[in-house]
Structures are given as C-alpha cells and as structure tokens.
Amino acid sequence: FTLEYVLRLISSPNKLHFALSFMNIIDALAILPFYVSLTLTHLGATLMELTNVQQAIQALRIMRIARIFKLARHSSGLQTLTYALKSSFKELGLLLMYLAVGIFVFSAVGYTMEQSHPDTLFKSIPQSFWWA
C-alpha cells in the first residue's frame, strides 16, 4: 500500500491537491498504523504497553475499511447501492426506529413474563434486548 501511495503521489501533477483529497487522506490514515507500530517497536516495548497508544493504533486501522469506498468509483453496482441508500435514507431511519421500539416493547414484555421465574436469564430489561 505504501508503494502504491508513493507512486501515485509522485506521478500526480498537483501534489497538494492529491494529498488533500478525501480518498488519499483515508489511504494515508490506513497506512499510518503500520509505521506507528514500527516506530514504537524500535523505541522500546514499554511504550507499546500503553493502552492509549494501542487504542489509537486500532482506531487508525479501522480506516482501512474506508478504502472500500474507493471501489465505488469503479463498480456500477456499488454506485447504484449508494444512490438507493441515499434515496431511501428517511425510510431506513423510520425502519430502524420501528425496530428499536419493537425491541424495547418485546424485551419489556419478556422481562415482565419471566421475572417471577427463579432461573430466568432476563434479570433486567436490557438483558432481554437480545431475545427481543
């Protein structure tokens, strides 16, 4: 990935525009955790034991998933899916709201029905969310 990124940067006519484009920032953030880990390994093992550093590296590794968005430029199916999701954003939000209400209602019903049983797994309404 690093070689590809560097070659694209070198061959770009406008390097500042290349470096500041959204997809290339995602690429840089996806490559960065490797070099952060490599640097911290050379600095010493005690620094790698810091949980904040490890969490930051994991957060940057998640940026690799965003590279999938680059495929949308080349795939008409992904472009169609993106358009469909954007077009039905309100309906999807409404669906998720109805789903959440249903989960709350049925988990409360499940908890209420099972609370008198001594060996119940539903000790609280949030614990019954998974069942609902």
Structure keywords:
single chain; mainly alpha; Helix Hairpins; 0% strand; 132 residues; 7 helices; 2 domains; flat
What does this 3D model show about the protein?
By secondary structure, the chain is mainly alpha-helical. It has 2 domains: 1-84, no CATH class; 88-132, Helix Hairpins (Orthogonal Bundle), CATH 1.10.287. The protein contains 7 helices and no strands. The model has no long low-confidence stretch (mean pLDDT 79).
Give the SSE layout.
Elements: H1 2-11, H2 15-20, H3 22-43, H4 45-48, H5 51-62, H6 76-87, H7 89-114
Gross morphology is: flat
Give the low-pLDDT segments. none
Q: How many strands, what sense, and barrel or not for the largest sheet? A: none
Measured between the Cα atoms of the first and last residue, the distance is 43 Å
What number is the mean pLDDT? 79
SS content category:
mainly alpha
Share of residues in helices: 55-70%
| DSSP strand count | 0
Number of distinct helices: 7
Number of domains: 2
Radius of gyration, taken over Cα atoms and rounded to an integer in Å: 24 Å
**SSE topology string:** HHHHHHH
Q: Tell me the β content.
A: under 5%
Main location: membrane
Domain Ion transport: 1-132
GO biological process, one term: action potential
InterPro entries: Ion_trans_dom, K_chnl_volt-dep_Kv, VG_K_chnl, Volt_channel_dom_sf
